[in-house]
Amino acid sequence: MLDLLITNATLPDGRTGMSVAVEAGRIVEVTPGLSAPAHEIVAAAGYLLSPPFCDPHFHMDACLSYGLPRVNQSGTLLEGIALWGELKPTLKAEDIIERALTYCDWAVAKGLLAIRSHVDTSDPSLLAVEALLEVKRRVAPYLALQLVAFPQDGVLRSKGGVDNLKRALDLGVDVVGGIPHFERTMSEGAASVKLLCEIAADRGKPVDMHCDESDDPLSRHIETLAFETHRLGLQGRVTGSHCTSMHSMDNYYVSKLIPLIAESGVSIVANPLVNITLQGRHDTYPKRRGMTRVPELMAAGVNVAFGHDCVMDPWYGMGSGDMLEVAHMGLHVAQMTSQKGIRACFDAVTTNAAKLMHLQGYGLEPGCDASFVLLQARDPIEAIRLRANRLKVWKKGKLLAESAPAASMLHLPGRNGATSFTRSL
Ligand code: FE2
Q1: What is the pTM of this model?
Q2: 2-51+363-408 — its CATH code?
Q3: What letter would DSSP give residue 361?
């Protein structure tokens, strides 16, 4: 007797009429038209069954703090950092935990079951680090939360930056972060990349650095990150996040840079909602989009994922934990409007993100965890177009969340001879 049998599902790779059989929290069979006894049978009615959404780049210590202590007036990254600096001394652990748990509830309802969150290590008390480690423990049964030690004020620029970051790692933070473009000089930025990669190599940790989150075409720390990855043998364990300066770089230089990134096995995370909002703020017209070169990186074989980055915080006042909204913005900003391009944007918030996060048991193959999302859409393209309703969300075979099918009741005189009718969205 199976624990769960899902019938007539469409899978992201295009297979239709598929049955997914679950036993003891794992997928045991994926095949067309399976009929077998099960404790629960869910008829998917042709809708899309996807592995869960994964957010590879987030700031959970700041989320849902919009307006505290004030709103970012200029809308720039730098005012956001200054505003976060004003907020930090007033933060209380219980408030960070409460906001983070609320966000995790939103995430689960949207089928987002894995989040890599940076946590600011600049404060010597490590208050935010301890708070998010507590959140990680509490949500572990239903959401995989990875934490990145993020020296927001610059690991070399801020007093005690290296020591604070190392103490955060000692406490159990998973990944080494950095912010080379925020160090005092380009050479200090490069030195910080070298130092942080060496710390990661010594401790056997992955690296995920904010890298060149700037419109400055000469901000080239991603080159140093790729070089250090290669030098230290960290291939497959390193991610460069944002990399927005690549948008503005000289094309000849990029023709050398992208193959270097591919050779080094460095993954790249773009954050479309926030990049399109924060970058280009010093421009008059034309205004740059400021997102990294997503299709070109993908074409070179680089693993590229999309992150949410911010939800209602000093940098960004919008967002709801919906990775389909992220993919939707990503395909617009990158002009990835071909069928293949849209599907690649779906992968950027699912499989590509899972790959750089090294998630175990992720996928829709036999042997994988029975963690998936049933969307009210026929395929990944419709899912992004509609930011489709998440009908059901499972983690290891257990139902975590469900939503009523989205439908509108229309009252249109003269249509089809009826005065009113219901339409699915
Ligand atoms: Fe970020």
Answers
A1: 0.97
A2: 2.30.40.10
A3: T
